[in-house]
Amino acid sequence: MKKDKIFKKEISNIIKIIENLSKTKINNKTFFLTGCTGFFGIWILCTFNELIKKHKLNTKIYVLTRNKNIKKTSIYNLSRNQKIKFIFGDIQKFNFTNNIKNINYIIHGATTSAEETFKGQNFNKKKKIIINGTKKVLRNAKKFNCNKIFYFSSGAVYKNLDKNRIIKETDPIYKNTKFEKKDHNISVLGKSKAQAEKLIISFCKKNKIKYTIGRFFTFVGPYMPINVHYAIGNFIHSKINKRKIILKSDGKSKRSYMYIADCITYFFLMLFGDKNNHIYNVGSDKKISIKELAILVDKITTKKDGIKIDQKNKTTTCYIPSTKKIRKDFPKFNLTSINKSISKTFDHISQYKNIY
Predict the structure, then answer these.
(1) Does residue 346 carry a pLDDT above 80?
(2) Reduced to 3 states, what is the DSSP secondary structure of residue 212?
(3) Farthest CA pair distance, the chain
(4) How many angstroms separate the CA atoms of 159 and 163, rounded?
(5) How far apart are alpha carbons 64 and 140 in whole angstroms?
(6) Alpha helices (H) in the chain, listed in sequence order
(7) Closest Cα to residue 319, out of 224, 232, 228?
(8) pLDDT tens digits, residue range 94-118?
(9) Which of 81, 181, 312, 332 has a CA-to-CA distance to 42 between 20 and 30 Å?
(10) Rounded-to-integer distance, Cα 139 and Cα 209, Å
(11) How many CB atoms lie within 10 A of CB 176?
């Protein structure tokens, strides 16, 4: 794999914002990560890697993965460091005590992968990994006297995503994980993540462990999946291959997109900041319809190939977070515009096609 200069520069920019806060919190600490070998994971681990190398920190990071071929992946090659150890196992069955002696921070987000979701994995499997995996993590957090748990939740926990309004942290979320006939991937994910949040909050309060829960929305940037079920990834993928963008809906649903480097900056600020025991929406509050997004991607990238709209699916949803709380509680930094986010992502994919 050729040296990824674009990615390295992005990681350096993240570190400029977070290093004064992070380096003392990372040194002489042990981290255990689940669900961090995908799109988010590559950014998180490479940021950890650069911080460790730059400041010569005594840090141990254990990353649980179900991928037996992890050594052949970009995340392994880009974050290679003796301080970062990938451990093969399923979160529901993993034996912590055989592999780890101490844990200061748990960063937990284990679920089925984007690829598994795209291929239509069993909903019950997703539910079990999220809920049973969280229970397993919590049992071991107590055993290892963990200081803090960070949980990767989702904006999918909110009910009523068909309403045309911005979603606040105080809005209603799913109360149980009972499946219904009308359930689909988003509602199953939402119900399961909401239950996991409840387990974490109850456990941490009882055992006096700090926690932060991030409800993550929609993101764009280098290393994102471009051939699964994410609209913006599909649009960019079409443009890379010089094809017309096809909307599999009427394009009226509303979304927002945060650049992944901004997301990871917020992640580290939440992880190491002094605002504990809070829930935060993470994402952009800049609304754009799917049709407008398709037009924008077509305009910003190569020559206009045009878009085609399939009118069959007319279900309209709105998936936009309120970000007032996270902007109030953490240091301000310049966020990347949607135009620049698309341009940066397209440029990266164009230069490193072989890794997508």
Answers:
(1) yes
(2) strand
(3) 58
(4) 9
(5) 14
(6) 5-26, 39-55, 74-78, 114-118, 123-143, 185-207, 231-240, 260-272, 290-300, 324-329, 338-351
(7) 232
(8) 887 777 889 999 999 988 654 545 4
(9) 332
(10) 12
(11) 9
